[in-house]
Design brief:
single chain, alpha+beta, NADH Oxidase, 4-stranded antiparallel beta sheet, 8 helices
Length: 209
């Protein structure tokens, strides 16, 4: 599939077919693509936790969901047969940029214009989303990036033995689209911004004549 077609087809899928297992090794192949995403200073401080067993996914949803009847979003997402947690270590980046070849003399966030551990995790997540589209030219496999509620992150760490220094940046769900699945979420209520509102050249605002 041409890359331009992968980009055009990619969207967040929030409802999966629970009766269709993923192809063998697919989640590992998606993670391998994520491992090839850019990483500042070649720090390689983004890690992944794959949840492909029913018991593990059930534990994840138990510790991240509130009490009461699940809403339509949660009912759809819980049907995903694969979850990939994206983790990032700030310590890994601070250690890397304190080395002699980077010219910084101390572990400090002050020189950073952005926390690149989050930037790199976002790049890895985007690579996985594109790879999920590319994995099935027929368009049956989909994926969605979503966050863990802030008040549930510690429970996720405890449940899955994630070290305290690792940020739980988000999760990618993967599965076959459910029959009748259709686009949902913000894109249904918000129109895409015109290109000229978001793309600038030479100057943010073009000077008036």
């Amino acid at each position: 599939m041409e890359f331009s077609e992968v980009v055009r087809r990619r969207r967040m899928v929030r409802d999966y077919d629970p009766d269709r297992p993923l192809p063998d090794g697919l989640l590992d192949r998606l993670v391998d693509v994520g491992l090839r995403a850019p990483t500042a200073g070649f720090t390689q401080g983004v890690s992944f936790l794959i949840l492909d067993r029913d018991a593990d996914r059930d534990r994840f949803w138990t510790v991240t969901s509130g009490d009461g009847e699940p809403d339509s979003w949660l009912r759809g997402m819980r049907t995903a047969p694969g979850l990939i947690l994206l983790l990032a270590s700030a310590d890994a980046y601070l250690d890397r940029y304190a080395l002699a070849d980077k010219g910084w003399t101390e572990r400090s966030v002050e020189p950073w214009t952005a926390p690149y551990w989050f930037v790199d995790a976002g790049m890895a997540g985007m690579a996985i989303l594109y790879a999920a589209v590319d994995a099935d030219p027929q368009g049956r496999i989909g994926a969605c990036f979503f966050g863990v509620p802030a008040d549930r992150v510690e429970r996720v760490r405890e449940t899955f033995g994630i070290p305290a220094e690792q940020y739980v940046v988000g999760v990618v769900s993967v599965g076959h689209r459910a029959a009748g699945e259709r686009q949902s979420g913000s894109p249904r209520s918000r129109r895409r911004q015109p290109r000229e509102a978001l793309v600038h050249r030479g100057n943010w605002r073009t000077p008036k004549d």
